[in-house]
Design a protein that fits this description.
With 492 residues, the protein is α+β, with helices and mostly antiparallel strands. The chain is built from 15 helices and 15 strands.
Length: 492
Amino acid sequence: MERLSGMDATFLYLETPTGHMHVAMVGIFDAGTMPGGYSFQRIKDTIRERLPLVPPFRRRLVRVPFDLHHPVWIEDPHFNLDYHVRRIGCPAPGGRRELAEVAGQIVSIPLDRNRPLWEMWIVEGLKQNRIGFVCKVHHAAIDGASGAEIMTELFDLAPEGRELDLEPVEPEHVPNDIELVSYAAASKFRLASDAFGLLGRTARSVARLVGNIRNPDAQHGAVPLTAPRTPFNQSIGPHRTVAFARVPLDTVKQVKTALDVKVNDVVLAICTGTLRRYLERHDALPDIPLVSVVPVSVRTEDQAHTGGNKVSAMFTALPVNIADVGERVRAISASTQGAKEDHNAIGAHMLTEWAEWAAPRTFGLAARLYSSMGLASQHRPIHNLVISNVPGPPFPLYFAGAEMVATYPMGPIMDGAGLNITVLSYRDHVDIGFLADEELVADVWDLAADVGPAFDELVELAGVSDPTLVKQPAPVTPTSDRARNEAGPAAD
């Protein structure tokens, strides 16, 4: 039995009937590398074998009576792999658009809290003898870094796999109410013992932040509740839409070096240029920057392979209102540097420490009330969107012998911010996953198609040779389903 941290539990409390708090990944695999050919059973057997390495896949929630404290994880005594690993066919012609359509349907359905909080869908029938992979895991169980660690446990470095000698994990009994209440009381006592220390650390952090703000020479990030309203900053519904894009990693690094900025600045510049084009097309370009939440890992070396959420957040300005790409990049670099200084002033662990005090019943009721009343459409957005950038492996990975060709990550959206952009580097490219509310961003593939020109203008600015290296995600909005199928790209 293990208590959820306050940060982990917060993602449970934030979940509403329209706001699903799971993260997802869409992978494309070459079935031609599987020894003996494609086999769904081999995939299931591989997952079953690796379960001891992946605690979030084995554990389920147990709620504390009267919500006295955060829930606990236990090893599920009734675990059934058949519930979690399923297969489905991809509509013809089996391109990325069709795979994204399947993924959008899967991520629109919340996870069952009576079982371990994950599902994996194998999507058969893709072009070029490939298979799709849609995995969703509740954010209460993993963050971006721990999700990447799960990849390394499930996948191999060669098609033939690796030898494993793992001890089976014994299931736990479901604790009774007396055990849960006793454990909650002990946890609450330990938490209360640090209350004065937390207040002192918070006071010092606020003083440092105020000092930074008053310093005329200091740089600052974006400020919450200063975001302009855009078409995707409304109350959200339950349905999701998904799209993908890709840029070459080597060229991203060349641009980074030529412009003397960070890789994350280049990623944010790509997103800014993409969003500028999209908002211009919708006649919704604001005259002030967008505000993006950028998650920051605060995981230490001794917390590696521990799962859960070890994250904080920065608020960064995305100057979509600036036409000149060079000026835009400089503004982004200054904003991210200022956001880091603000974040350092507050303290990397301040958010996670205060999350421990989240009251389950009050927090959950407030989130559901806010969602059901559509309040996100009634006030200025807290922020416009979330952009996550997670480093991935620079070498090929194999799943049950199938080589991973591409992997598109997707984070959750929330009321008032109906668009999420998640970026993951893999091998020699950077894969970008777009997840949005289906009503607010119905033309998400148009948005993904804007990545190409946005990246090309950065390449041109940097003077990098070999411009226009972007693999276009898909044709922009076909006029009919038939046209879409005829124009559908290969699943790569």
